[in-house]
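thought: fold this chain, then report.
action: predict
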Amino acid sequence: MSTVGRPDRRALLGGVVASATVALAGCSSTSAATPTARTSPAPTATTRPATPAAAFARLVEGNKRWVSGELRHPDRDPDRRQLLAQKQEPFGSVLACIDSRVPPELLFDTGLGDLYVMRTGGEAIGPVVTGSVEYGPMTSGTPLIVVLGHQRCGAVEAAYKSLRDGKPLPGNLRSIVEALEPAYRQAVRQGGDDPVETMARAQVELTAHDLRSNHDLAPLVKKGGLAVVGAYYSLDTGKVEVLSGRPA
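observation:
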């Protein structure tokens, strides 16, 4: 019998199967490409620590994440920015060195609106800096101040050598040396294998003590509404060590 003009049965079945496969593949890819509807949560304020101990604990936990590398990068998005556009209530004030390796917001894993930060060479302090440190506790009830020194501080080393050798530094760098002279004298009295590190730690302790006992902050400290912590940052490990004033 002649087969001219009649479709081959196997070819016809193959075409049907191929068409079905294409159709199924099309349905599958369409489903995969359709995103699941999600509702973005409305921005909410992070709970602000209300006591010195709670504020200190927040910084300690953040530093642990910095050391381990398990960072959360909290409060760093447009929603947080908008939330704070009209008002801020930082839970801590940090007086740190200008050193580029010691950014308080990073090493405490904090974000926008969490900290008042003041940075001077070797944590050198004077009336304007003191007023800046006082601003948070005296205007918005910030419960914690941290004076943060660090390992291998270039400003402290330069001041130490200037005072030891009797060679003044140029320009306004002399003002830093003058501010650090009490720490230099204490380091000389203490002695030790590394006088620059001794001086850097002494600068932290002396500055924290001065802030803790000054006319305006002392009453807040006495009432328990404010703590002034002296701390020291290790460039090698990333860890912050408490030297004095740990909140109860």
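thought: worth noting. The beta strands are 92-96, 115-119, 144-150, 227-233, 240-244.
final: tokens above.
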